[in-house]
Amino acid sequence: MSLIVLVGPMGAGKTTVGQLLAKKLKLPFLDTDATIEQRTGADIPWIFDVEGEEGFRDRESQALADLLALPSGVIATGGGIVMRPANLELLKQHYVVYLKTSLAEQIKRTNNDRKRPLLQTGRRESVLAELMAIRDPLYQSVATQIVETDGANSRNIAGKLAQQFDS
Fold first, then answer.
1. With CB atoms counted within 10 Å of each terminal CB, which end of the chain scores lower, N or C?
2. Torsions phi, psi for 163 (to 5 deg)
3. Which positions ≥6 away from 22 have C-beta within 8 Å?
4. Residue 150's pLDDT is what?
């Protein structure tokens, strides 16, 4: 397996699991959000403020296309990567692991996070629920594999995935 893409909602552990998996498989770790920040010299909340969600999604789509063109790596994507049909089509051409997480777990994991623009409202729980209702079917539509992350340790998830790809 040369490219493995991780999708899922905020707080699913895409970055953490991705870094651990890449290390175990001796592959480069790539992240769409980090790629955008490196290219722009600005953080994601600033891009949202200045360019709006649409501008950010344009940058995200370009980052995804560029990373998927690389020969190998473990790619962690932003939670909204599945919101554009063109991204869905690109993702369907690769091995995609959906890190599925319950709403309760998302709330717990993102509770102190101030870097997520879509959660900077007083309605964190309802926003997460609305996003999950829209995005879960999309994550499932591109998933080659679904891994439940509730109550699971990131190292264990990465270890099980690594064994699968290493064999």
1. C
2. -60, -40
3. 28, 29, 73, 74
4. 85
| Of the candidates 80, 53, 15, 90, the residue with the CA atom closest to the CA atom of residue 6 | 15
117 within 8 A of 44, measured Cβ to Cβ = yes
Q: Are strands 3-7 and 73-76 parallel, antiparallel or unpaired?
A: parallel
Q: Which of 75, 94, 92 is nearest to 138 (CA)?
A: 92
Tell me the mean pLDDT per 10 residues along the chain, length 167: 89 92 96 94 88 92 97 95 96 96 78 57 74 93 94 90 83
Distance CA 61, CA 83 (A): 10
Angstrom distance (rounded) from CA 79 to CA 89: 16
| 17 token code pair | 């699991």
Number of domains comprising the chain: 1
Distance CA 40, CA 34 (A): 10
CB 99 within 8 A of CB 17: yes
pLDDT at 137: 96
pTM, two decimals, is 0.90
pLDDT for 145 equals 96
Domain that holds residue 63: 3-166
